[in-house]
Amino acid sequence: MSDESAFPKGDLMKGKRGLIMGVANKNSIAWGIAQQLTAQGAELCFSYIPAMEGRVRQLAETVGVEFLVEADVMSDDDMDKAFAEIKDKWGKIDFLVHAIAFTDKEALKGSFVENTTRQNFKDTMDVSAFSFVDSARRSAELMPDGGAMITLTYLGSERVVPNYNVMGVAKATLEASMRYVARDLGPKGIRVNAISAGPMKTLAMAGITGGRQLMSTGRDWSLLKEDTTMEGVAGAALYLLSGIGASCTGEVLHVDAGFHVVAVPDGIGAS
Q1: Which DSSP symbol is given to 9?
Q2: Which run of H or of E encompasses 191?
Q3: Nearest to residue 32, comparing CAs of 215, 233, 263, 219?
Q4: Catalytic residue positions?
Q5: Is 78 helix (H, G, I), strand (E, B) or coil?
Q6: Mind giving me the DSSP string for 114-177?
Q7: Under which EC number(s) is this enzyme classified (predicted)?
Q8: Pairing state of beta strands 95-98 and 43-48?
Q9: Which pTM was predicted?
Q10: What is the dihedral of CA 157, 143, 20, 56, to 10 degrees?
Q11: What burial class does residue 201 get, using C-beta atoms within 10 Å of its C-beta: 0-12 exposed, 13-18 middle, 19+ buried?
Q12: How many CB atoms lie within 10 A of CB 117?
């Protein structure tokens, strides 16, 4: 993970305020995006769940963020309270970063058919897909002058990835939801997009059996022959959330060193 100095400084987000949902630790994609946005002058609010409060608050302090709200995305009461706090303090916001996903680790092993239970399927969809729809609706109410939203997805939504299982189905739902949210909010001047990042050393990747091999394969098969970088993903987020991303909405932007376009890697099938 790059330190704060790795993120270009400027004023693309000067005067902009927004909510970051999903910071878990210093390796979180949401945290990399937060560093890039603050480097460009944005004022941020972080959401957290109680178990993560200390860790999130400690990170927030390093970039001068003091505004945090507790928000369990599975609780309407929690979400009501969190967005009421944001409205009371700021009145309106300019952007939303949604980086929340969760499933039972046992569901990320072996067979999708055998290891997916009814309850886990419901919970995974609730946290990983519906939470974006709910957060987008609530955020849009605080965007009277338009704004921008992004969520995070992964190639397992489009193609079968070993052990990604129910999370791939949830990400496919998330991407479809993003497009419908973009349709509904477009007339209000709100742009809505998703970033499909390649495998990275995050808490989410650590929970997937064979995650290290996924990263190795991603690097070896990619067009650039390199790992997906936090700087690349954060830069894409800055583009989509700032004014230079005008006219872009309903899009899934792949940031994976070109891995997603490869059908067969070099050397396989060659004579």
Answers
A1: P
A2: strand 190-197
A3: 233
A4: 154, 164
A5: helix
A6: HH--HHHHHHHHIIIIIHHHHHHHHHHTT-TT-EEEEEEE-GGGTS--TTTHHHHHHHHHHHHH
A7: 1.3.1.9
A8: unpaired
A9: 0.93
A10: -150
A11: middle
A12: 14
Q: Is 241 exposed, middle or buried (0-12, 13-18, 19+ CB in 10 A)?
A: buried
Buried b (16+ CB within 10 A) or exposed e, 34-48: bbbbbbbebbbbbbb
* Segment 200-248, tens digit of pLDDT: 876 565 555 555 667 677 888 899 999 999 999 999 999 999 999 999 9
Measured between alpha carbons, how far is 187 from 195 in angstroms, rounded to an integer? 22
Regions of the chain short of the pLDDT cut 50:
1-2
Q: How long, in residues, is the chain? A: 271
Round to whole Å and give the CA distance between 3 and 21: 20
Q: Which two tokens stand for residue 212?
A: 């290290």
Structural contact between residues 149 and 100, judged by C-beta atoms closer than 8 angstroms: no
What's the one-letter identity of residue 61?
E
**DSSP per-residue string spanning 12-73:** TTTT-EEEEE---STT-HHHHHHHHHHHTT-EEEEEE-GGGHHHHHHHHHHTT--EEEE--T
Pairing verdict, β 252-255 and 190-197:
parallel
- For residues 128 and 87, what is the distance between their CA atoms, to the nearest angstrom? 24
Query: Angle at Cα 36 formed by Cα 33 and Cα 42, nearest 5°?
Result: 100
* In the block, residue with structure tokens 């390649």: 198
